[in-house]
Amino acid sequence: MTAPQPGVLAVTSGEPAGVGPELCLRLAERDWSLRPVVLGDAGLLAERARLIGVAPRLREYDPALAPERGVLDVLHVPLAAPSQPGALATANAAYVLELLDRALAGCTYGEFAGMVTAPVHKGVICEAGVPFSGHTEYLAAKTGTPLVVMMLVGGGMRVALATTHLPLAAVPAAITQPLLEDTLRILHADLSNRFGVDSPRILVAGLNPHAGEGGHMGREEIDVIAPVLARLREQGMRLTGPLPADTLFVPHTLEQGDAVLAMYHDQGLPVLKHASFGGGVNVTLGLPVIRTSVDHGTALDLAGTGRADAGSLFAAYELAAAMAAACRA
C-alpha cells in the first residue's frame, strides 16, 4: 500500500436531496491545511450553488493543479436520477454508496489522507433494498474491520460509545466483557496514534443509575464492567470507573480524562451535543483509514435554502486534517 498523499482529504457530499452538497460548497470559502476534494455530481453541485447564491468556481479534480481559495475541486460521480432539495429518491441510494466506496478506495490505496462524510439518509437507502444502519457499520464491513467505535468530539469532550444504534432494551445484553475490552483497546490505541495523546486517561460510565448502587440497581457494573477495567489497568491503561453518568459529565470529573466511554447512545451524546451542536464531529475509531463526519442529519427541510450551518462540516474537516498530521508525526 502506498503512503497517503499528505495534502488531500476526500469529502463525500452525501444524500443529494439533503444539505450535504451545499455544505460542501462552503469549503471553498477557506484555506485549509489539507486540500479538500469533494466527491459528488458536478451538475448537482453547480445547480445547488446557483440555488443558494454561492459562487465557488468548480473544477475537475487534478492533483497537478494547486489549490485556490474560491475554487472547489470536484471528483465527479454522476447521479443515478435527477435530485431536488428535500425530495428523497431511492434511485440515488446507489449513488450515495458509490461516493463512500470511491472515497474509501482512495484512502485505502494512498490517494487520500482521510475522508470526511456529509450526512446520508439511512431510511431511503434501506427502502432501496440495501440494508444500511449507518456510515460506521458500512465502512467497517467494507474494510473487514470486526469492531469499530463511534466517538463524538466537541464542546471540549471526546465521548465514545460501547454500543451504538440499538434499542435501549437490547443494550444490557450487548455489553459483554469481550466487547468492552475490545472497545477500550481501540479507543486507547486511536487516542494515542491518531490524536497524539500520550498515556490516555479514559473515564468509563456505568450502565445503571448510580453505577448500580453496589448491585442494588443492577449488577452489570460488578459482573461485567469492573472486571474488564481491573484487567486492563493491570496492563497499564489509565481507566477510571465505572462512574455514575450523572456525575461523570461535570467539569471537575471531565478534566481528569482525555475521553469518556459511555455505555449507550443516549447516555453520552445528549450531553456532548448540548455543549457543541453545530460544531460537533463524529469519528470512527478502529478503521484502517481516517474518517470523520458531521454530527447532524440530512436536514431535508433546510436543503436548498442556504440556511444550513457549515460549522460541523468545518470542524470535521479540521479534525480529520489534525488526525492525518498526528499519523505522520
From TrEMBL:
SUPFAM superfamilies associated with the record: Isocitrate/Isopropylmalate dehydrogenase-like
Cofactor requirement: Zn(2+); Mg(2+); Co(2+)
Gene Ontology MF: a single term: 4-hydroxythreonine-4-phosphate dehydrogenase activity
Pfam family of the protein (one): PdxA
InterPro entries from the UniProt entry: PdxA, PdxA_fam
Residues reported to bind a divalent metal cation: 165, 210, 265
Pathway(s) it belongs to: Cofactor biosynthesis; pyridoxine 5'-phosphate biosynthesis; pyridoxine 5'-phosphate from D-erythrose 4-phosphate: step 4/5
GO biological process: pyridoxal phosphate biosynthetic process; pyridoxine biosynthetic process
Cellular component annotations (GO), alphabetically ordered: cytoplasm
EC class (word): oxidoreductase
Binding site for substrate: 135-136, 273, 282, 291
Source taxon at top rank: Bacteria
Record key words, sorted: Cobalt, Cytoplasm, Magnesium, Metal-binding, NAD, NADP, Oxidoreductase, Pyridoxine biosynthesis, Zinc
Bound cofactor: record note: Binds 1 divalent metal cation per subunit. Can use ions such as Zn(2+), Mg(2+) or Co(2+).
Keyword Cytoplasm included in the entry's annotation: yes
EC number(s) per entry: 1.1.1.262
Catalytic activity: 4-(phosphooxy)-L-threonine + NAD(+) = 3-amino-2-oxopropyl phosphate + CO2 + NADH
Signal peptide (UniProt feature, chain positions): none
Locations listed in the record: Cytoplasm
HAMAP family in alphabetical order: PdxA
Physiological role: Catalyzes the NAD(P)-dependent oxidation of 4-(phosphooxy)-L-threonine (HTP) into 2-amino-3-oxo-4-(phosphooxy)butyric acid which spontaneously decarboxylates to form 3-amino-2-oxopropyl phosphate (AHAP).
NCBIfam families for the chain: pdxA
Other comment: The active site is located at the dimer interface.
Assembly, per entry: Homodimer.
Protein name: 4-hydroxythreonine-4-phosphate dehydrogenase
